[in-house]
Design goal:
Elements: H1 3-18, H2 38-55, H3 63-66, H4 68-80, E1 94-96, E2 104-116, E3 122-132, E4 136-138, H5 140-151, E5 154-155, H6 157-172, E6 177-185, H7 186-189, E7 200-205, H8 212-222
Parallel strand pairs: 2-5
Antiparallel strand pairs: 1-4, 2-3, 3-6, 6-7
Helix pairs in contact: 2-4, 5-6
This protein binds zinc ion (ZN).
Zinc ion binds near residues 116, 119, 185 and 187.
Length: about 220
């Protein structure tokens, strides 16, 4: 590739990242994403993170820094990015809707922590999810777990919103699902434009939630 083209591509990627543009619904994973086990991933990430710290000029023999590469590697694999691995996908427990409750159910203010895939810094905020039962209901804590699963990976807020909605539709066997996410992006707060007050709201409405009356009932419940 010639240098001019390479530079143009780099600029284009940088702009896409800074604008947080992503077009695919699926998290872009390679075919062989889970060919390595977690222990090997931790070992390799620790090695590379140590290298990053070294390049920054940090003294890795210092007591305070010695444990950092392994600590970061464990945090990435076991916590921040554990939602990449389908083995951690929450098994939904569904119950019969014995009360024949046919109104919407709203679980609001589900706190989540995610990571911007363009800058690898935190995105955090609240998700509000709602559905209208088609005969099955889901344990309330499972809604939190589904949000957490899709948050625990390098993410783009719009994609996370759609992924949670699609999962709920599939698990609950209904189209009548709504997801609203209100989040702060550390990459906006601490770098670039340095705006620590703004938050980003995204939504994904399906089925009966496309209907204005149903949608405004939901917005009334979540108070926005
Ligand atoms: Zn970012």
């Amino acid at each position: 590739m010639d240098k001019k083209l390479a530079n143009e591509l780099l600029t284009q990627w940088e702009e896409m990242g800074d604008s947080h543009i992503s077009v695919k619904r699926e998290t872009p994973l390679r075919e062989d994403a889970f060919a390595m086990d977690d222990a090997l991933k931790i070992e390799l990430i620790a090695k590379h993170f140590k290298e990053i710290m070294h390049v920054l000029g940090l003294d890795l023999t210092d007591e305070s820094l010695q444990g950092t590469p392994l600590r970061v590697a464990k945090m990435y694999v076991n916590e921040h990015f554990k939602g990449l691995d389908p083995k951690n996908r929450p098994e939904p427990t569904l119950f019969e809707n014995n009360y024949k409750y046919a109104e919407m159910l709203v679980e609001k203010n589900i706190q989540f922590h995610s990571t911007c895939e363009h800058h690898f810094v935190p995105i955090y905020g609240f998700a509000h999810v709602a559905y209208i039962s088609s005969g099955k209901v889901i344990g309330l804590s499972k809604l939190n777990r589904i949000v957490d699963y899709f948050a625990r990976r390098p993410q783009v807020q719009e994609r996370m919103t759609v992924q949670v909605a699609e999962e709920l539709k599939q698990v609950l066997g209904t189209q009548d699902v709504a997801v609203i996410i209100d989040a702060k992006h550390m990459c906006v707060a601490s770098r670039g434009i340095k705006d620590s007050h703004s938050s980003t709201v995204t939504s994904s409405f399906h089925g009966k939630f496309l209907d204005m009356a149903t949608r405004s009932e939901l917005l009334k419940y979540i108070g926005s």
